[in-house]
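step 3/5: co-fold with glutamic acid
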Amino acid sequence: MSNIRVRFPPSPTGFCHVGTARMAVLNYLFARKHGGTIVFRSEDTDKERSSPEFEEDILDSLKWLGLSWDEFYRQSERTEIYRAALRTLIDEGKAYVSEEESKKEAGVKVRIIRLKNPGTKITFTDIIRGDITFDTTELKDFAIARSDVDPLYHLAVVVDDADMKITHVIRGEDHISNTPRQILIQEALGYPRPVYAHYPLHLSADRSKLSKRTGDVAVRSYREKGYLGDALLNYIAVLGWTPPSEREILSLDEMIAEFELKDLHKSGAVFDLEKLRWYNREYLLQKTDEEFAVYALPILEDALKERGVAWDSAMGQNILHIIRERISVGDDIKNFAAEGEFDFFFADPLLDSTRIPQKGVGATDTTRHLEAVRQLLGDLAESAYRDAETIKGAVWDYATAEGRGAVLWPLRYALTGKDKSPDPFVVAHIIGKEVTLRRIDSALKNLANV
Ligand code: GLU
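step 4/5: write tokens
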């Protein structure tokens, strides 16, 4: 272990959002790269807005993404340590108690503890942004605690960073303006200054800042939609960082090997849902058939049951490769299923006789073609249905001679009841001989009634 120590310091005032995850990923990659230690610090000093439910969601979400940490603290359990620091500051004349009118309740006096601000110019070096100088005069004597029992955020952060021996503070640039205040408190307490790295925040697709409170940026909402933890992690990591190898798909270990803070982009990346979908698809394609079945079948089963379509798990297995071809994320299975895209594998379709013939082909010719195809497919042994190519071979010459659309459109429609679907040979192969012939017969009956 090196002496490098970083922190994940989320405030549990909302569900774990992508911004929190990104903060954690960047700290994680940096710490693991250098054999450092990661401290998880729940910054729950805002009692009104913090909740254990949110803290649990943040812990769960980060673990689900594949992240881990080495130490865990909760600020609400460390009040004594902050009070001791406050006492030191007051005793040394670096902070003072002032009686003030409450901002919340008129006529009520409150005790505020304010830091005596020396009003100096502060320059700190940021790994990503270079030297940053602030004139701290305008910060005046800012508040560091409400009464001596309620330390405010900046004090708690500074005391914790020192107590936990944090060496690197890696956080979003929305915290830059906090840094001079925090350095002033550090200097008053005689603490060492950590190294700072403020990275640009990412933007949502419409280039607005991603808000913590927007439900759809919560990590859990991606999880619920069927995104994979490793796909989301990979996308979050490369959002605003290009690994030197320029590879897009990297495992956590590969990211650790390539990671350098200085390679983080200097301007905010846009969170692009299409790109996330691409990542998820790539990760789904890497799954074995068994893994994909475990992922996809429960989603398909639920969605079909919702439509009142009888579930058949063997059929579910049979269409897994078709599903894998078409989707980027589990939610796509749900949506396609809800649109009836998979019904015909499980139940005979309802046919509209006017749609059986290809456009421009009459019912008589269509009937003749379907009868011929029925004959050819009926002559095939059941074992021939194990392979879509054999089925295709059986009707191909006839279709070529008579016009492929005129022959194959009605066959496909008879089998699926859909204008768009996989080709009829694949469908026949999946549903088998008996069902194939039954559906052709039913289309022929339909045509006879026109
Ligand atoms: N608790 C702060 C937040 O969730 C982060 C504090 C820090 O990085 O210094 O925004």
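step 5/5: annotate
The first helix runs from residue 18 to 33.
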